[in-house]
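Troubleshooting log. The previous structure file for this entry was overwritten by mistake, so regenerating from the original sequence record. Sequence copied from the archived sheet and checked twice against the printout by T.R.
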Amino acid sequence: MEVSVQPLRILPIRFSFLSFNPNDSTTYHIGDLGGVIPNAASLGRFRVESCVNGRVTRIRLSGNFAAGTAEASTFELHNISQATSASITTTFSFASAANFPLVVTGLTLAVNIGDQLELRLITPAWVTNPTALQMTVWACIELN
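Regenerated output below.
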């Protein structure tokens, strides 16, 4: 029996942040510095650089928090270098930590070597804000 070895076709990249209390109606910019809270400004030092050519096809969000009310939050992945983005979800609820993990497939965000990537969390005007929010997000890049 002949065995065929296939080259690695998926490269995971990680976004994460330290526990924080998110504000109402704010866009948070998230990169790979797990020891800091998300920033309300887009700063280069918080971005993740792609080391391959391909496209992001899958995202897995996991985390923990003290629940707030059920208003919908948005997660987006942005390719700053190409000024393109992929909507991950516009309906995520921080009403229950049981909503994690969230796996989203079918994305097609193109990336090239050296592109700067950033995860964005866009919060609503909550009745009750979630607290102690911490997350790790894995984005899978399918190689060209």
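The longest strand covers residues 54-66. Archived copy saved in two places this time.
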